[in-house]
């Protein structure tokens, strides 16, 4: 992730800063992964951003997200552009870094820039047998093989 998301983007931005070009706009393919768990609502504490779930919690089958203050129940909210950025994976960290590199550098170079934060991407030619190509390929493969899919409030666990 570092090599391509950060290193490759750094090379692109270096070229934009140090060579003659006709580039007027840069679009960076960012990711929903920059938000971590996302946004939730606690009846006592309002809008909040839960902490990363612990391994022992997940391995015991407890997929519930709780309020980080009172440990009470929370309701999932839509994760919008104003939501807190708190990536919980190396991938999410590199996508957040990549996005900021493009937005900050392009602003200083006078180039328009935008980041699109994709959730699940699927397209022609995508492998249905590679689990790293996204949840849609995992779901479709499980369905084709007659296996079930369990979904827990925005988090998926395939059994």
Strand portion, in percent? 15-25%
Shape summary: globular
The radius of gyration is 19 Å
Question: Can you list the strand order of the major beta sheet?
Answer: 3-2-4
Describe this structure in words.
This protein has helices at 2-18, 55-59, 90-109, 135-144; strands at 25-31, 40-42, 46-48, 75-76, 112-118, 150-152, 155-157. The strands form 3 sheets. A 3-stranded antiparallel sheet has the order 3-2-4, with no helix packed on it. Strands 1-5 form a two-stranded parallel ribbon. The protein has a two-stranded antiparallel sheet with strand order 6-7. It is globular and about 55 Å long. The protein has 159 residues and is an alpha+beta fold. Residues 154-159 have low confidence and may be disordered. It contains 4 helices and 7 strands.
Which key features would you list for this structure?
disordered C terminus; globular; single chain; alpha+beta; 18% strand; 159 residues; 7 strands; two-stranded parallel ribbon
Short characterization:
With 159 residues, this protein is α+β, with helices and mostly antiparallel strands. It contains four helices and seven strands, in the order H-E-E-E-H-E-H-E-H-E-E.
Helices and strands, with pairings:
Blueprint: H1 2-18, E1 25-31, E2 40-42, E3 46-48, H2 55-59, E4 75-76, H3 90-109, E5 112-118, H4 135-144, E6 150-152, E7 155-157
Parallel strand pairs: 1-5
Antiparallel strand pairs: 2-3, 2-4, 6-7
Helix pairs in contact: 1-3
């Amino acid at each position: 992730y570092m090599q391509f998301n950060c290193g490759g983007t750094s090379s692109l931005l270096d070229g934009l800063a140090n060579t003659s070009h006709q580039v007027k706009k840069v679009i960076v393919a960012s990711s929903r992964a920059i938000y971590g768990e996302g946004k939730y609502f606690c009846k006592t504490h309002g809008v909040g951003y839960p902490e990363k779930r612990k391994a022992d919690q997940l391995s015991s089958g407890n997929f519930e997200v709780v309020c980080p203050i009172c440990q009470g129940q929370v309701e999932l909210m839509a994760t919008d552009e104003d939501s807190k950025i708190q990536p919980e994976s190396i991938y999410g960290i590199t996508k957040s870094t990549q996005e900021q590199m493009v937005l900050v550098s392009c602003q200083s170079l006078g180039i328009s820039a935008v980041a699109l934060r994709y959730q699940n991407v699927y397209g022609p030619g995508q492998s249905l047998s590679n689990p790293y190509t996204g949840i849609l390929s995992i779901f479709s493969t499980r369905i084709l093989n007659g296996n079930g899919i369990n979904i827990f409030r925005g988090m998926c666990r395939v059994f």
